[in-house]
Automatic annotation (TrEMBL):
Residues 37-56, 65-74 have a biased composition (Acidic residues). Belongs to the UTP25 family. One of its GO terms (molecular function) is U3 snoRNA binding. It comes from Dryobates pubescens (Downy woodpecker). Keywords: Developmental protein, Nucleus, Phosphoprotein. Residues 1-80, 141-169 are annotated as: Disordered. This is U3 small nucleolar RNA-associated protein 25 homolog. It holds the Pfam family Utp25_C. Residues 542-726 form the UTP25 C-terminal domain. GO terms for biological process: maturation of SSU-rRNA from tricistronic rRNA transcript (SSU-rRNA, 5.8S rRNA, LSU-rRNA). Interacts with CAPN3; the interaction is required for CAPN3 translocation to the nucleolus.
Length: 731
């Protein structure tokens, strides 16, 4: 790779320098100095790829993050008020600098080297047959595109239609001073409360934008949907709507209406209340509508301009800047093949107008075979919680990527990336094509002109491998190393100026608030329009879902900063907590450990101290898991070390628990009540004395609030007492 590659991939997030030379000349210079590129027009058939998994398992164990959490590090203990601390945990990825230290700890402690799956090469299919059919360069607009401006011209009514949000967003030309502002000045923010979304924080660097209002009366016409979406959307979305809908426009659910209002105005959005059981699918439908609307408008603009260029008289010098440096416009990151399958099904149904012939979808059969699942493969009689069934439905392979091209009334699956409009991929699928520095075969030019990035179910990537998400974000919207046959006279100026990241909209959906996810939103989203984050505080915690009678002892540990909290927690556990449980009377003790690195450290300590324990993590073989569970139930092993990711992927009921230690609060708050309620699974007729101990620090404010509720969390973090007791299950 050339030096340019190194520079661009290491491009600073807070780069304040504004280029003096024009982007066009810089790009040409880049093309001149880059060596013979190995990337091909169609995505290579034999890229590095990972071994497909047939059962639920977690990919990799590196949870390394960026060292970007620092502001609170110098703060002395007790100097932060709770509201300030809460907002800081939202605004900064405070936990993101801990992971490198944890990784170092893992290596120092001699963790299993075999944890990372090896990625062998897989045969990858790319459709080259339909290249000319789906080429944007050689096709022309068949019919009136049906955009807002056309509606305005045709409408005789006095109702004023707004300007098309797509044109408004993409045609805005930023000036160097504005770019400099965004690179150097802090964002100003304002609060707003919406009926469905609740508490919103709007933040932006450029001139104070009008804060959006939750308008319930917006009709389909005012949304500027491209044909055929205006007619297909109400039918496709019907399943989520109550049959007797009194609204003037019954095509959106109240949640979809507010989400789409933000998406359609091209704000970045962070929505941390996605629930696979309740609203997951209606959210998927809403972002698919937005992505498809964007792609149809962008392609219609190019095809329409193709026709104008074809028909223009010689000598006329009209400028038609209507595209990026590469064709892909939308990147959808989803965790499993089943999610990609559902996305494609939504896109197809949105393109099919009832009464007309079905749209042509090339390679549909192959796609169903590779992304679908056989219902008979699922083992019978597996009882798992409903949320588990919803998340792990269908084909749960987590290594895939597929290009989708859309042209008028046709769709092409498995399109080469440089001929695709939409790319749907998992973080691992992206990681294996982006590659690492020094690797010969790597490619990320196709990410250079992404205009909408959708990251769905972000919380699941915390359980897979968060490093892949960070790696992807570092390679978004960089100048390409090769020209890929682009017509520079058609490329928008912001793309030539290397400003495309300021036009990229990011939509981030998660089931929870988490410092790592907050960090992505705050440090990797540069949209000039601004950011909108949903920031509701949990009023009731998951502790209210516990049905067993159990005293919960919460013990606060004092840490100077986030990084030191890891060592402080370990020392506190070894010195203060473990001695109380070493007695044989305290047998049947389960220790719940969210971080794999903490688990390795504890496992090594327990071995050194020759404690009677059994370890279970996401890499433990099935036979060893069965053995450990049996020994623990019979009391032959006093301690059971148990990782959060094992629980996430398996959700076994562990029998025989009498004492619980939460080494750290769970990532998912409902895991707290779920683990506590496992105690009732053992009914030996004896009134055992059950205990539960929880370790927390001030840096666990979000997790603590999700378990005990916001008011109690505030008291527990500000109190002079370090120990707090709750009792559940009392009548």
């Amino acid at each position: 790779q050339s030096e340019n590659s190194d520079q661009s991939s290491a491009e600073s997030d807070s780069e304040a320098e504004v280029e003096q030379t024009s982007g066009y000349h810089k790009l040409l210079a880049t093309l001149k100095t880059s060596p013979e590129s190995e990337s091909e027009e169609d995505e290579s058939d034999s890229e590095e790829a990972g071994e497909s998994e047939t059962e639920v398992s977690s990919e990799g164990s590196q949870e390394t993050g960026e060292a970007d959490g620092g502001e609170a590090d110098e703060q002395k203990e007790g100097s932060l008020s709770f509201p300030l601390l809460w907002s800081m945990l939202h605004l900064e990825g405070l936990a993101t600098d801990t992971a490198e230290q944890m990784l170092g700890q893992e290596q120092a402690d001699g963790a299993d080297a075999s944890c990372e799956r090896s990625h062998g090469a897989i045969e990858e299919f790319t459709d080259v047959k339909h290249e000319s059919e789906f080429s944007l360069e050689t096709n022309f607009m068949e019919e009136e595109s049906g955009d807002c401006s056309a509606d305005k011209r045709d409408s005789n009514s006095s109702q004023a239609f707004p300007e098309d949000p797509f044109k408004q967003h993409m045609d805005r030309e930023l000036h160097e001073k504005e770019v400099e502002k965004m690179s150097t000045l802090p964002k100003t923010s304002s609060q707003s409360k919406w009926p469905q979304l609740g508490q919103l924080t709007f933040s932006s660097t450029l001139e104070k934008h009008k804060t959006l209002k939750a308008d319930r009366e917006v009709g389909m016409k005012q949304l500027c949907l491209h044909k055929p979406l205006e007619s297909t959307w109400p039918k496709v979305n019907k399943q989520f709507l109550p049959s007797m809908n009194k609204q003037s426009d019954p095509s959106f659910t109240p949640l979809q209406r507010e989400l789409f209002c933000i998406m359609n105005a091209y704000w970045d959005l962070f929505y941390p209340e996605r629930n696979a059981l309740t609203n997951g699918e209606e959210i998927r439908f809403a972002y698919c509508l937005h992505a498809l609307n964007h792609v149809l408008k962008a392609n219609a603009q190019v095809l329409s301009n193709n026709a104008k260029r074809r028909d223009q008289k010689p000598g006329t010098d009209d400028d038609y800047r209507d595209q990026g440096l590469t064709r892909p416009k939308v990147l959808m990151v989803v965790p499993f093949r089943e999610c990609a399958l559902r996305v494609v099904h939504v896109l197809i149904s949105l393109l099919e107008v009832s009464g007309q012939r079905k749209i042509d979808v090339s390679n549909k059969k192959r796609f169903k075979g590779e992304f679908g699942s056989d219902p008979q493969e699922k083992p019978p009689n597996l009882k798992r919680p409903e949320d588990y069934e919803a998340v792990f439905a269908g084909n749960i392979d987590d290594h895939f990527r597929i290009g989708v091209a859309i042209l008028q009334k046709s769709m092409r699956l498995y399109a080469p990336f440089y001929s695709s409009d939409i790319i749907i991929a998992s973080p691992l699928g992206m990681r294996t094509i982006i590659g690492a520095e020094g690797e010969k075969k790597r490619d990320f030019d196709f990410l250079s002109s992404i205009e909408i990035l959708i990251i769905d179910q972000a919380d699941i990537y915390l359980m897979q491998n968060w490093e892949h998400v960070l790696h992807l974000m570092k390679h978004m919207n960089l100048l390409p190393l090769d020209s890929h046959g682009v017509d520079f006279s058609r490329v928008r100026m912001p793309n030539l100026n290397n400003w495309s990241k300021y036009y990229r909209q990011t939509l981030l959906f998660s089931a929870l608030q988490h410092p790592q996810i907050n960090s992505i939103f705050n440090k990797h989203c540069f949209n000039y329009v601004g950011q909108v984050a949903v920031r509701n505080v949990p009023l009731r915690g998951s502790i209210s879902q516990i049905v067993v009678q159990l005293p919960h002892v919460f013990r606060r540990l004092e840490a100077e900063n986030v990084a030191s909290a890891i060592d402080t927690r370990f020392q506190f556990f070894v010195d203060k907590v473990l001695p109380e449980y070493r007695d044989a009377i305290m047998s049947h003790t389960l220790i719940y450990v969210p971080s794999y690195f903490d688990y390795v450290r504890l496992r090594n300590y327990f071995k050194k101290e020759e404690l009677n324990f059994a370890p279970i993590c996401e890499y433990t073989k099935k036979a060893a898991v069965c053995r450990a569970r049996r020994f623990f139930l019979k009391g032959e092993k006093q301690f059971l070390l148990f990782t959060e990711r094992f629980h996430f992927y398996k959700r076994y009921v562990i029998k025989g628990i009498r004492n619980l230690i939460f080494y750290e609060l769970p990532t998912y708050s409902h895991f707290y009540s779920e683990i506590c309620n496992m105690m009732k699974a053992t009914d030996n007729g004896v009134d055992a004395t059950w205990t539960c101990t929880v370790l927390y620090s001030k840096y666990d404010a979000q997790k603590l609030a999700a378990v005990v509720g916001i008011e109690r969390a505030a008291q527990m973090l500000q109190s002079k007492k370090n120990v707090h007791l709750f009792v559940t299950g009392e009548n």
